[in-house]
Amino acid sequence: MQRMGEEPVSKLVIVESPSKAKTIKKYLGPGYEVVASMGHVRDLPENRLSVDVKHDFAPKYTIIKGKEKLVDELKAAAEKSDGIYLATDPDREGEAISWHLAYILGLDINEENRVTFNEITKTGVANGMENPRSIDLDLVNAQQARRILDRLVGYKLSPFLAKVIRRGLSAGRVQSVAVRLVVDREEEIRAFKPEEYWTIDAKLIPKGGRKAFPASFYGDEAGNKIKISNKEEADAILAKLEDAQFTVAKLKKGSRRKSPAPPFSTSTMQQEASRKLGFQARRTMKAAQELYEGVEIEGQGAVGLITYMRTDSLRLSEDAVKEAAEYIRERWGDRYVPEKPRQYKTRANAQDGHEAIRPTNVRLTPDEVKSSLTGDQYKLYKLIWERFVACQMANCLQSTTQADITANGYLFKASGYTVTFDGFTVLYVEGKDEESEETGALPVLEKDMPLRKKELAGNQHFTQPPARYTEASLIKALEENGIGRPSTYAATISTITGREYVTREGKAFKPTELGEVTTQLMKERFPKIVNVKFTAQVESDLDKVQSGEENWVETLHNFYDDFDKTLQKAKTEMEGVKITLKEDQTDLICEKCGRPMVVKFGRYGKFIACSGYPECKNIKKIVHETGAECPKCGGKVVLKKTKRGRVFYGCSEYPNCDFVSWDEPTMEKCPRCGKTLLKKKGKHPKFYCITPDCGYEKVQENEE
Q: Which of 85, 308, 428, 649 is the catalytic position?
């Protein structure tokens, strides 16, 4: 019992981030102290394997370097409190963090002190606090198994790759398969042999009409398709159609319904943000985390705007569906609400612990909260809000027309549609990886109606190779193949691009020579590691640990025992073998000894060194010239990077010239003084001159 004169004792709630702590504190009020663990506090140390493979993979955890003071503060707060709640994120990683915190703070593992919040709202926090449970050890063991498995693959394979190819390389259970997908696609593109084919395309005008509509050659009048392989075949058909009468032979009218896309899971949110917003997965997840944990909304304080953002589920709460229907009815009317509320089926192997990603309050529209959000937060919230509301709206109804058109024994086809009721499309339409060529409405046509030919031409085409993966399509492929989990895709993509296995060309991923050579080596020496089906099976086994169906130690043995034998064999057979990459060679000759210079990789990145090392120790920095002239001295402008990787521009004559700029120097010259113009990026890019007393600038208008 509390004595007079003593400070009131409060319950301690431990979450992962300060912003989440702030939002939850607002809902819990007095009597609770809410603190942040700042993510993981205990982990496998980085400088050694820290897994005892001889004793059932016993992990050797330590306090993460730099978090010792934080741990002491958590212990002190725990000692003063009148009860502790572990409220880390409601997923596998969050469960593991709670387990580590329980160990550090000396808590009983069976005590019901674990609370989870699917949404950081008054209701969500109240529900979580009213339903505490003990730590889910199956969930913890699933996280441990993944962490240990990834550590074993990474720490055992990476030194092998470094020795055989070059230093600084890494391998990973998921990243290596992701690279393989990109490499395999590139090989398909290279092996692809384009085939010529022709189409005959007409533009026809109905009797008494003015507007032409498109029709495409199909085949003979009997409905047999004719393939046109070359110009000669196309010209022969065109000759027969020169003076032909085009007539509507058959009309088929119908209707179709278009249903809205389901609410977002983590994966589909990343894909759509990539397509529509141009966001990389890491950027999407950062904004989503902020929206979930809570944002300061004008007049309302800290509010969690979306439900938990790491989920495979498409399930929606009845309350959320009901609120959406009420909002839709008020804003658009009864016609826009479907007869039955929509519920979406989650795919078979998904983790269904949480709802789909949705706004916590549908009445907090994107426009209402825009002034309180950053640009990224607003764009993503708008996407999530519109996707959720649209998924509870009525179908889009379309009236369709298909016409068969005959001309001198040949058949052309035309199709079109009109929207009779816009339904959910009034708000939102899902993005596509590939654009469709669907036409709009056809003019009013009748059977036996004669048509006037406006245009008729043969067009040459070639079959196209499969497209390179974009971030959206790679994430989709990983998910469809059961590789990794949506919560890991952002980190996987950052790793494979950061390690230079893959580069971005526009939105597309292209493998580097390093990525191709590494993948080839992995295919030859560690076929299981880069085998899509095998990796998916391992993922499935790890999920069974989470559901309590399999033992985590046995699962690790099943993988590691065979992997270790393969690794030892590869090490023995490739002793002394070194693979040289073409992309590491340069055209430079060492001015000290005359031998060729090569690209080397050191602790701080790439540099150029003499191939005669160690006899010749000549080295140079890698300089990326922009082609622009220095606006101060006329020297060459080179691209540089800060320690954190941010690009800036400077003069190659430094320190004699001190020109430096975040904005890119261009090839354009100032019309007033003749010096190089700089370009400030933005919606309307600005070109400007830095020469003193010149002051010239011009804004580039959007071409659209």
A: 308
